Structure formats: C-alpha cells, structure tokens
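User: My advisor asked me to double-check a structure prediction for chitinase before group meeting. I don't want to rely on an old file, so could you generate it fresh from this sequence?
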Amino acid sequence: MYLTGQHNVVPEQSLVENITEVALAFMPSENFNDPTQKEWSLFTTIDEVRPKFSKGTIIQVAIGGWGNTDGFSTAAKTEESRSLFASNVKAMLDATGADGIDMDWEYPGGNGEDYKQPGHLNSDKAWEISAYPKLLAAIRSAIGPSKTISAAVPGLPRDMLAFTPSTIPDIMASVDYLNIMTYDLFNRRDNVTKHHTGLQLSLQAIDAYLDAGVPPEKANVGLAFYIKWYTTAANASCSSDPIGCATELMEAPATGADLGKAGAFSWHDDVPEGLSASFARAMEWSVGEAVLDLGYT
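Assistant: Sure, here is a fresh prediction for chitinase from the sequence you gave:
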C-alpha cells in the first residue's frame, strides 16, 4: 500500500495485519542528483511507520510521483548520472532505514504531465525508453539484493511506451515486482466517460504486462481508495448509458494544462463543495461508479 503525505492515516492494526509492503510517498527524484545531498526528508519516518504494521512488513520510500519527471530524466541520461542517482538511493536507504524503494516515474518515454511542454515532448524523451532499465540496473547494483525495488507502471496502453516485450526482460532483471496502476484509466485526456479503475480495463492492463513477459507473481494490481470526477458535456445524455458519455474539454490542447473540469478526492476526505449532490446520486444509483450531471465517480 501507498501511505502518502496527503493522507497520512493508517487504519487500526487488525485492518493492516496482512499488508506486506508499504511505500511512503513521495520523495522528489531530483534530490538524488545532488552529490552533496545529506537530508532525506519525508512527511514521516520509517521508525514512526514501522510499528503500525505487522512485524516483517517491508517499508519502502516511493520516489517521484505524477509530475515529478525531470529528476529521473537527468538521472537516466549518462552512466555517470545513473551512478550518482543510484549511490544516493543507497545513502538514503542507509540513513532512513527503509527496506527499499518504489520507482514512480510517470512515465519514461513521455506522456507525463508535461508531455506538451517544449523539451518534454514524447519525441524528446524517446531515449528514456532504453535508459530506464539502465537506471534500474545501476540502482540494483548500488543497493544490492537484500533491498527491494518496485516500480509503479502505467495502466493505460497508450502510456506503456517503455514497457514492451523488448524492454521488460531488462526491467524485470532489476525489480522485485511491478505496481500496475490499474486506476486513472480514464483521465482528463479522454473525451468520453469510462471507468477510472474498471475491471475490464484493469484486466487489459494486466494482460499487456503478462504478454510483454512480466511473470504473474511479479505483477501487483493497483486498487484506488479515491474517487475521480469529471464534468460531462452540457448537451450529453448520460442517464441511459453513463459509459461513453461525452465530457467537456478537460485538458488544454496546446499546453496539456488541467482545465479544472476533472478531479479526485479520497474516501477519507469530505466530499468537495459542489459535488455533494452528484456524489449522493451516484452512490444511491449504483453504490459505486456512475456518471451523473456533474461528474464521474
């Protein structure tokens, strides 16, 4: 499970006793490119988190996260930069007492938050596809076999630029397992509604990785503990079939900027103002995923 700074809430012991890995999210990737880096700050510490879970639970530090790509790109560029990043990962693990890392690069090869910004186009980042396994290999060499490396990987086929039959063998040689992001499968780059963490789309994502050569025992399915909402088009008729319903434009075509027509909130959060009525109708209608009036949950 991911434990984040936004929701630093651990359920009671009986509810987490079977958790085997916890990733503390996130530490910025750029921190690991500084040869003078000595501080490894997080929203909590390994020592504070470890007693909240069963003995033997692996506590990782997740590096990166959505929108945090530049540090990875810098790190992957050369043998020297990969070595620096890897040595700093080892230093961080030694200093914090963490059991490993989760590499959350979204995404090697492009399609990240900045994918329409100059210098960050997919064509500018194609070299990262072959550099990504090399960065993982450098980290594995630096930290040794006793520490874990997992990688958060995209659930949408359009984002699996660096995860193909030609790259998966080298990736899997360095990581213990992949955390497949079988959520956010409908996002602001779409123009019709679909499930953001639906069963069929999740199965398609899993199959894509298995077909590319990922051993089943090294593929983790992601479960989203949050709600996504999206604004449907004013002229859309969604009552009869909420899947495939037209949305408003949610991302600026030229820049990729968020137009504020979509969002998310955790089950732990209060329902945001303006969404209460739509959320209540969605829950009453299906006790789950639905599209009604304002958005998609």
